Amino acid sequence: MIEDQPYTKRPIRLKHLVIIYVCAILAGLILTSVGVAVQKEATVATTMNVLASSLSHTAFAATTALPINEAQLARCGIILLNNLVYVCLIGLGLVYVAEWRGSHIVLVIALAVNGATLGIVAGLGVAILGIPTTVAGLVPHGIFEIPAVFMGFIMGLAGIYQIRDGVPKPEMLRMNRDFILTTILPMLTMAAVVETYITPLLMGV
Question: How far apart are the first and last CA of the chain?
Answer without folding.
Answer: 57
